[in-house]
Design brief:
The protein has 360 residues and is α/β, with parallel strands linked by helices. Helix content is 39%, strand content 14%. This is Inosine/uridine-preferring nucleoside hydrolase domain-containing protein.
């Protein structure tokens, strides 16, 4: 039956080719082209993430608020951190599928920190499981969609060059992609509208190892490069601010609020976070806070500028963000540390993500 085998082979080759074409045709972002942009324009954003559950909340928050806050998600770029990059991409695609937003292009980036080997997982542990989504069995992969072929760093450079000073970067994972962007294309640093980071710690209180926050601990050199080479003041949402919100955002409130929801992305997150938070008191959707601040700057209640760097050599402090309090010249300050936000307003923003609650 060689002829029949040949026919079957041609059929499957054609099917795969069509799937690739369809995936490519749906990959164009809904963000307007530069020439079609109206005066004032939309606020564009690139979300660089490592796709644990909190990253997924950030992505959901952004996509469901594009119209309300006049923003558009230009791209999602994936980095190592909570999981390996292929798993990060699957988690992102799972959320995009749930929201009906497979038009948002996804790019694979750095798979390891700048200096290897990476930290021992006994120090950085697997809070979000090995795959970033609590190792939940979803019974299958997301529908046909593929990450884009370009490397995340190459695409970031292309986008910032194409839309100078019109794209904000939200970096909510280890900063390897951003550091590579800065080193490979130093001229692009001046073309980024603003940078928001979830990471670091302003009092030396860490959630990983002894004195470091997870994202900075996972690639201290990358964090050092970004803080010390950004021409603009970097907005930093540190671990201590996350901790200060834990009493308001308890796991009890989280599950009672969203256990019954028509939002398919939150349905996915219910499965993930039940595995992660079943025995925890405080809910820590860290990356979502950064998305909320970008969307709605009125929730900021206390922001203080400092000169900061990242400790690279300390035996117990490697990866810690060090505030240089003796540097009082404001022109030398490089970070704006977000110490306090309006938690009640964030609650309202979260409630608006539930379609049924939003309509009542």
């Amino acid at each position: 039956m060689p002829e029949m085998n040949q026919v079957v082979g041609i059929f499957w080759a054609t099917a795969v080719w069509l799937l690739v074409i369809l995936a490519g045709s749906s990959s164009a972002s809904k963000c307007p082209r530069a020439e079609a942009e109206t005066p004032g324009g939309v606020r564009r954003v690139i979300l660089d993430l490592d796709a644990g559950g909190d990253d997924a909340w950030a992505l959901t928050m952004l996509l469901m608020n594009e119209e309300k806050y006049n923003i558009c998600v230009q791209a999602v770029t994936c980095t190592h951190g909570n999981a390996q990059v292929p798993d990060v991409a699957v988690n992102v695609l799972r959320i995009l599928e749930a929201l009906g937003r497979l038009d948002v292009p996804v790019y694979l980036g750095a798979s390891e920190p700048l200096i290897t080997p990476p930290p021992e997982r006994k120090d950085s542990h697997y809070f979000w499981g090995h795959n970033g989504f609590g190792d939940v069995d979803f019974g299958g992969m997301p529908v046909t969609s593929f990450p884009q072929p370009e490397h995340a760093v190459l695409k970031m450079n292309e986008l910032f060059q194409s839309y100078p000073n019109r794209i904000t970067l939200l970096a909510v994972g280890p900063l390897t992609n951003v550091a590579l962007l800065y080193k490979m294309y130093p001229e692009v640093r001046d073309k980024i509208a603003s940078v928001y980071i979830l990471g670091g710690n302003r009092h030396g209180v860490g959630n990983t190892a002894f004195a470091a926050e997870f994202n900075f601990f996972s690639d201290p050199e990358a964090a050092h490069i970004v803080l010390n080479n950004s021409p603009m003041t970097v907005n930093v949402f540190p671990w201590e601010t996350v901790v200060s919100l834990m009493s308001l955002f308890s796991t009890t409130w989280r599950f009672e609020t969203f256990i019954k929801t028509s939002n398919r992305a939150i349905q996915v997150l219910n499965k993930v976070e039940w595995e992660i938070y079943a025995q925890e008191d405080g809910w820590t959707p860290c990356d979502m806070y950064v998305a909320a601040v970008f969307l709605n700057n009125t929730i900021l209640e206390s922001v203080v500028k400092y000169r900061a760097t990242v400790e690279l050599n300390g035996r117990v402090t490697r990866g810690m963000m060090a505030i240089l309090h003796h540097v009082t010249d404001s022109e030398e300050h490089n970070v704006a540390v977000i110490d306090k936000i309006d938690g009640e307003e964030v609650r309202r923003m979260l409630l608006s993500l539930d379609v049924e609650k939003k309509s009542t």
